[in-house]
Design a protein that fits this description.
heterodimer, A: about 700 residues, Aldehyde Ferredoxin Oxidoreductase,  A, domain 1, B: about 50 residues, three-stranded antiparallel sheet, 1 helix, about 10% helix, about 25% strand
Amino acid sequence: MGPVKLNEVKTVSYDRAEVIKGYTDRSLHINLTGNDIRIDAIDAAVKDKFIGGKGYDLWFMWQAVQGATKWNDPENALCISAGPLGGTPGYPGGGKSIVTTISPLTGAPIDSNVGGYFGPYKKFSGFDVITLTGKADQDIVILIDGIESRIKIFNAADLPDNAYDLSEALTRYFDEEKPVNISVVTAGPGAENTYFGCLNFSWYDAGRKRVRYKQAGRGGTGTVLADKRIKAVVARYGAVSMKSNQPADLEALKTVTKTHAKEIHELDGKQNRMALVGTTHLVPIMNDHDCLPTHNFKFGSHPEAAVIGEDVYEHIFDKGFDGCWRGCAVACAHGVKDFSPFTGPFKGTRVFVDGPEYETVAGCGSNLGIFDAHTILEINFYCDAYGLDTISVGTSIGFVMECFENGLITTEHTGGLELNFGNRYGTLELIHQMAKGEGFGAIVGKGIRQMKQIFADKFNADPGFMQDIGMESKGLEFSEYITKESLAQQGGYGLALKGPQHDEAWLIFLDMVHNFMPTFENKAEALHWFPMFRTWFSLCGLCKLPWNDIVPEDNKDTKEPAKVMKHVQWYADFFSAVTGRETTPDDLIAMSEAVYNFQRVFNLKMGYGTREHDTLPYRAMGPVTVEEYDSRRDRYDTQLTDTYGMDISGMDTAAKVAALRKERESQYEQLKDAVYDRRGWTRNGIPTKETVQRLGIDFPEVLEVLAENGIQ
Amino acid sequence: MTIADLLKQMPDVRFCSVVRLNGKLVSSPRFQETRIPDNAVIYLLPLVAGG
């Protein structure tokens, strides 16, 4: 890696706005077509309604794009915000950034919640939110320097292509003496050449003296950054303390921070042990409950799953503090040092791998039939360095492997790769091809929705079968949970605004294991409350893990244990302490509901956001194939006879598959009706005029979009 | 005694689908078959939240 060479092309000095009660009340807009830099005040009404984080991102995106805007149009905006509570050191999960843009995969707004120090540093540098629009005519780097109160744009040539080296190089370049002052947002070559490029958000790990990163994975945010020819966005800021947000009530903030952190320190070791194993504890749990995606979501468990779970990674992870924000008590961002890849450009070198998390293990391990912790680490490393979303990579390759094993595609199409489940080298080769935009990897990098079209049009593959097994909805690949036996989680995925990502609702255990929500109305209520509360974390710049992944020991004795209301109250206290706005738990839901419905209308503006787009591939609901049915024959036979009252004595398996499908697809449609009713939407899935009025988002432009869709 | 036997003796464990038995995770499908050794340390995981 040679010395970094950057040529400054524009510098703007600014008066750094003070952060007061969590807000700077300033937005930064950089239009790369002409390198225009503008700083605006944020209107009090916007602050009141959109809160911050994802709310701000969506509001400013709405102003930037038209209904016809495509992801690669210059006016598409990439927005990053931290939220009013973001940047609170010591509060568990208190330093997240939220990214939104028009997704290359879905054509609609995508949002991604990510760790690393960028969001807080950007805010303390004077900006609640930044929007990046336009396109540069050559590769550039943007610096937001909160220490010197300057914004700089550099032309960048000969920088490292991969995010791993680039993050390190720019961190050292911009503050050699105090690298902890730097956070870098990068993508990578994979982001340039696929539709599911991710963003890497860095922080400097002072203990290990190296740059680390977490990923804004979903929906192609990195692809948009690369399309704008932004190699990196860098934030520079100095010391951060609990006073940095100038909270309204510092003592109250200290109290709630200490209380929550203390509980996590006391209980994590007895519960999920995330400070030791991250989220890899979920691998054996999901496997035991038949929810671990295996062979493209065909099965939910595998005898070899134990070798890719917490028992293995606990011993591989490097010991030390692993918070992706300062002082986080959960500290789940583990990594592996001195890892030596056996393929690709880093072959034979020693690298540090950030991860893997559960999603990567499941998506790039069991789902591909790869039960080898080392290979999963290598996939994880290259996906990050190339700027690829491990979830979309794993789910897409799983689809390819099932197509290959069923003869829908052959080595003639794959460039000679034998893409059977379990092929480790074939998987890594595909990932290297994706990064270069070459070979069959270039097709896989377009995502499942486009692959289905290409395979049907060019390879004469069966479109009906691919529709059933292609694990995407709204164009986004599924995250890594089997939902066949949880109707509520089918709704959690199918009705999620951005596509099937579990951060809106994760109801599998409450529904499937505990039978906590037996009726459609129960499920609809859960599919209202949980998405709303989970949305709130992204309004405020927080991580949701401290809410319900470590729970109080007396939680089971409370009225609504699934909601962990003790913690919800702490979050209300947290919000009150920072912003000075007296807040109850119900207020948190109301904040989210306004933004949530605005995002649904935003989908509508972009040509989506109706019932037809809330569909699922049948594999998310039930067994597609005879093999799949037979793997759980007793369960399905019992359902047909006991639940649906059928006489199955004369039915062959194919007939049973069809009968079960009819029932399950009908159930999902009934669930949609119940959820739409609960959310105040029409049966076509559109917020009613009364709903947007009740939530105070009945702006003229919102009413105009509703009117265009028949809502008067 | 199995994990299932133990849970039967305890009040209000409806959210317990996973336990840690001497540090190892055991999920509800295996409660019936998993015996608890002498002097074991067992934690009930309150609920699995996922994601």
